[in-house]
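Students often ask why we bother encoding 3D structure as a string. The short answer is that it lets us treat folding as translation between two languages. Here is a chain of 337 residues written in the first language.
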Amino acid sequence: MKHRLARTLARASCLAIACSLAQGVLPAAWADETTRSASERNQGWPATVRVESKGVECPSADQVDMALRHVGVLGENATTGWVLYYGTSPMVAATHQAPFVWMYLASPTGQAVARRRLPNDGSDCAAIAGAIAVVVERSLHDLDWTRGEPLPENVRTKKEEPWPARPPRLILGMGPAAGTSALVGLNLLLEARLQVSGPLSLRLGGAVLAGHDSQAVGTGKASVTSRQVSATVLSTLSRSRAHLDAGLVFLVSIDRGKTEVLPDSADGRREALATGLLLGAGVRLSTHWRLAVDIEALRTVAGADFVVELAGSRRVVLPPPLWQGIVCGKLEFVAWP
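And here it is in the second language, the structure alphabet:
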């Protein structure tokens, strides 16, 4: 009995010693293994970029960093090398939460590798972070980068273009115009164009000079003096320094007519409305100056006739032109911004 008790105590003592060793040795070994694994993971992510943000809280820096890790890129607070910027455009003042997020990926030499504008209503920040990471990954793959490899130091990219800015809000234009109708003739136009939403804008314009036309009536004549004002709804497609315009034009003519050397001389006033289509093109000369050309095709849809009394009968004179075309070349000034 005493021998069995001694053997039991000996076994318990050995078990206690083993547990003590396990408590002291295994945590240290586990910590070493964890440190080693983390080190190996970091060595497996040689592709690192510096992440910068401005003016947005969605997505957060942590969400962008996590999304980058999923595509094999490690975000670091390095002072040199590759840079990923996301937020508002540097040319636009920061807002509380813009409806979109700009992202910009630049190489160590400052060359633009990717620029995107991603819609963002603030409802799914993680999805926006994932989209940013996907753009980064695809852009790097286009440079023949493979996950696990360091990023190249020198990058050949396309010709640099300025950072995308907001479309012009207000444009003032002036230039010569020629019309197929004598009521327009050779003239000088002044215009003001205001952006309404996105590519849509509203343009108001008017002719500086009055148009004139006349017609023989019996032994006398009838003449008319006309001034035009127009309103145009435009949609613009911009590509680099060039742009194309298309839109709907409304032209109002304010005419004053009179007769001369007739037994019953008279004068009167009328308004005529013409509507049609516009096609235009232009090129940006500098930050504030542009050249543009417009072609308009118009049809009169409403307008009264001038009527004169001649030998006891009524006669229509100088009716509004049914169809007319206008060509205008303009020098435009971007007044805002």
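Translate back mentally: Residues 66 and 129 are 8 Å apart (CA to CA). Keep this in mind for the problem set.
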